[in-house]
Amino acid sequence: CDWSSDVCSSDLLLRRGGDVRPAQPAPTPDQPPPAPSGGPSAPGGGTPNWGWPAAGRIVGTFKQSGGKGVAIAGRLGDPVYASAAGTVVYSGEGLPSYGKLIIVKHNDEYLSVYAHNNAILVKEKQVVAKGEKIAEMGSSGPGAPSPRLHFEIRRLGKTVDPEQLRSEEH
């Protein structure tokens, strides 16, 4: 699986950064969702203008998680926002340790990962704007004993510290 591959598992996507296809085809909506303004940022590459995905305190830092993102505490149902504009490449529960998971591809270099959601509000191939509500915080999966968002940013398949890229609070 590489950046241009049409067939990759969500596990490979998280490890290497390629495209993902669900194990079971997602139902197609009657009408495609409207594309929000400000489509995907920097299509070929470059660093997106990152925002923060949830209003809560960090209860697990990048270092504490072994370099696998941060944990942001909150209440069940709190909004989860897209940290930058992009296209949803995965929306589902195919990786049990991540619970209800959303992966957004921002450009050829960057992905963002939003795990342990209570409700997923976006579908695969949907274009999202920075700051758009994409999920509701939950405690799905074994890594979330209480409501929290597991948030990762991946550059070329490798996790980077989201706090170092943070440009503003949401």
Task: Explain what you see.
This protein has 170 residues and is mainly β. Helices cover 6% and strands 31% of the residues. The protein has helices at residues 10-16, 162-165, and strands spanning 58-60, 70-73, 79-81, 86-92, 100-105, 110-120, 127-128, 133-137, 148-155, 158-160. Strands 1, 2, 3, 4, 5, 6, 7, 8, 9 and 10 form a ten-stranded antiparallel β-sheet that branches. A hairpin with a 7-residue loop joins strand 4 (86-92) and strand 5. The N and C termini lie far apart (34 Å). The model is unreliable at 1-9 and 16-42 (pLDDT under 50).
List keywords for this structure.
170 residues; mainly beta; 2 helices
Could you tell me how far the N terminus lies from the C terminus, measured between alpha carbons in angstroms?
34 Å
Mean of the pLDDT scores? 78
Tell me the number of strands. Answer: 10
Helix-residue proportion: under 10%
Q: Estimate what percentage of residues fall within beta strands.
A: 25-35%
**Rg to the nearest angstrom?**
14 Å
Low-confidence stretches: 1-9, 16-42
Shape: globular
SSE order in H/E notation? HEEEEEEEEEEH
Main sheet summary: 10 strands, antiparallel
Total of DSSP H or I helical runs spanning 4+ residues: 2
Helix/strand-derived category reads: mainly beta
